[in-house]
TrEMBL record:
This is Ceramide kinase. GO terms for biological process: ceramide metabolic process. GO terms for cellular component: membrane. GO terms for molecular function: ceramide kinase activity. It comes from the Eukaryota.
Amino acid sequence: MTPMDKPNRLLLLSELRVRDTAYNVSLSRSLLTWKRRASSPVYHPFRPMSYVERCQQHRWRCAAVTFTCPDGGLCQSWVGAIAEQLAAITSRPRRLLIYINPYGGKRQGGRVYEQKVAPLFAQAAISTHVIVTEHANHARDHLRTDAELKKYDGVVCVGGDGMFSEIVHGLIWRTQMDSSLDPNSPDETLTSCSLRIGIIPAGSTDCICFATVGTNDPVTSALHIIVGDSQPMDVCSIHHNNTFLRYSVSLLGYGFYGDVLTDSERKRWMGPVRYDFSGLKMFLTHHYYEGTVSYLPARGVVGTPRDAARCRSGCVVCQHNGPKPSERAEKYETDDCGNDGDWRTIRGKFLAINAASMSCACPRSPKGLSPAAHLADGTTDLILVRKCSRFDFLRHLLRHTNKEDQFDLNFVEVHRVVRFRFMPRHCQSDSDLELDLLENGKRQIFGQICRDHPACGCAPAYSSWNCDGEILTHTAIDVRVHCRLIKLFARGIEEPQVFEDLTNPCAI
Ligand SMILES: CCCCCCCCCCCCC/C=C/[C@@H](O)[C@H](CO)NC(=O)CCCCCCCCCCCCCCC
Ligand SMILES: Nc1ncnc2c1ncn2[C@@H]1O[C@H](COP(=O)(O)OP(=O)(O)OP(=O)(O)O)[C@@H](O)[C@H]1O
Ligand SMILES: [Ca+2]
């Protein structure tokens, strides 16, 4: 054994055995590593120890190892040092509040939790309070008013993006109330939530889990919770006429994704495949919608939506763009005197208007709606898909599933923004409408009448907003990004480790 090596933060280094093979085993702060070596005499066994092993495609598994060593005293030193190190890690949760949606995805939430997750939490000595939800918004309302949050180190949801959204709404609301802030004001600087949220994926899309962990696997997510990972995330607030509607963390989509969601809600009984049916149907329907989008481009940030680089664990773009009080005013380009910076306006006919606050990667589209979007940079990528042929729209959609750039098409544009507004054409002021009619002449007037007349079977004037899988009640909205408002038990997607053994142990 070498003495405590402070500069390298090495605490113990010994030759130990696993079965008949000898290893050089070292313990530094919170990291236990072992490398094979040539060997020697009689060995005493430690207790079996659990650790995290990295597997293919970002999956983690819990493995166990039993070391043996030649003298009992050294054995005790090792057991003591490891226990001391584990106790010193304050980021690991000890008490969790868990909500299970028994009806999410393929309705396997309860089984997944009991069989795959609960045994791991028990092994890691995490105490849990489990609530199986009885109705929609049960978890949200419980968090808003009833939950004794001081008793917990984190909140976990077992379900899909909709269930995660409930937790986010409950926690953000509660945090703002505790800080005496007004969630109805779109200009309020909101207080970040202190409790981290864990997601055990058991839904239909699970894009938040996929885009923050790299896989939808309950065991991997449970292990990220156990080791106490932390990943901040941006949240958009959505208002209509200065009234709060909802928060969004992944996709806020009008047109195609709004229509897919509306149609798929009637097919919930089908499970996850409902999205494919409704997707095909809405693709064939090919509706476009008219309206005005205004946005505030992100200023003073690094990165663009067309970057080849991706947001990964320890992302430097997120670190650079994260909130620093001195930079905030510049980033939002707005000040207390009501100077609203350089708002830009685009009027047109759109097949889809999408805002992606993160990549929205999911099994259907492993690179996501906006592959270069960042989890915690304080911006959202506003994607405008203008009216085009079905063939062109299919080209755009297909590019979500291959290596080609879905933005490199002349009917698609993408802007990295901190705030945007949308006004459907028919909601515009009377004077705006009159101006349009004058500009566009008689043909437009007849088009207008036709659109307002349901019996003629023409395209509808309005779509709905798909807000993380929920339908918004209004179409005219004001959206603002709140940098790092929440934190997840995750670390972002890890780059594959090219030169390292896939097993990079970390005791649990
Ligand atoms: C030809 C294949 C093209 C495939 C294109 C796939 C693009 C998929 C992009 C998925 C983006 C998901 C963003 C995440 C949104 C979540 O907050 C939300 C809640 O869970 N999920 C959905 O709204 C669920 C949204 C699900 C949308 C599914 C859309 C499926 C489109 C199918 C089009 C078929 C055309 C075929 C023509 C022959
Ligand atoms: N006990 C319950 N009964 C009915 N609905 C519930 C219950 N608990 C939660 N919900 C609602 O079910 C909706 C869908 O749940 P969830 O997000 O878990 O699955 P999903 O929709 O299949 O997956 P995804 O959101 O990933 O597409 C959520 O909006 C949530 O509010
Ligand atoms: Ca972002």
